[in-house]
Amino acid sequence: MTNQSGMKPPKGSDRPRLKIAIATSGHTAALKNANVPIEGVDADFVEVTPIIQAFRRMVRDVEFDICEMAPTTYMIARARGAPYIALPIFVMRRFHHGGFVTRPEANIKTPKDLEGKKVGVRAYSVTTGVWTRGIFTNEYGMDSSKVTWVVDDEEHVSTLKLPPNVIHAPEGKSLAGMMATGELQAGFTGPAGIGRAGPPTGDWEKGGQTPVQVYPELIPDVEKVERDWFRSTGIYPIHGTIVVKDEALARYPWLARSLMDAFTKAKAPYLVDLKARKGDKPEDRRYRSFLPLMADPLPYGTSANKPSIEALVTYAVQQELIPSRPKMSDVFVDIDP
Questions:
Q1: Residue 120: is it exposed, middle or buried by C-beta count within 10 angstroms (0-12/13-18/19+)?
Q2: Residue 317: which of 308, 326, 304 has the closest Cα?
Q3: Going from the N-terminus, what domains does the chain have, and what CATH number goes with each?
Q4: Is the confidence at residue 195, as pLDDT, over 90?
Q5: pTM of the model
């Protein structure tokens, strides 16, 4: 294997030792247990739980050579001069019409009805929130500026200036508690909203929760809606991209190819297992449910993901998270498996 410069990855003691933080999942486990090596790299994997905390550490301290990061957080940081760039390796995927619930008495029937209401989201820039706000705005005509977005955590990029309709929950209150008392009329489920308490620490999904199943989803028949939207737009929301220090890519020109090849090879047996109906974790069930839509529910590379990348960039600009639309080459290395 060589890269465009013709350089080959080093072997033996000449390999650089690189500090890496990624979550363990069915499609990355082979990397982390060294069954699939990253050619040319002595990988020093650092466990960070939840992985969201690694995003914050990378944004604020540039702690890792290679790190998983929410793509919206990454684009915000990159626009502010962050010394790392993303590879189009997306290690988490899901659709975003769902995962958004309302209080029944709030009389919210469509996303447009959220105008004038208070909605709970962990942080304004959380990628789940960006995707759903973008969909509600562009597909349903919601004016995001007329919704009060209530947050109860910091933004990963602490210098981000938030729009005036974003407010912080009162001291000592959680989104889950505010949803339970009716102070919020709607909110995101799971880690993006009312399914956790406090900032991303190891026990943030313990305590302070209200059972989200008591609240109805805003979009009815949401799985069909999401699948129809994918078929018509080709957009498959991206999460968990892989960022690499600019310095490392400059010093090791073969590194991007080594990483793409390793992630692709580690994913292959997981896809075989999915198609054989093996694995029963929530992520296994989610990706398996997407197989009728796509042969690979975890597509890597620029070509396969261009519509999704372009959509998220559009939403980030619309929501005032980045100042202008960047060139694709400024935010993602152009590489395919």
A1: buried
A2: 326
A3: 12-95+236-331 (3.40.190.10), 100-229 (3.40.190)
A4: no
A5: 0.92
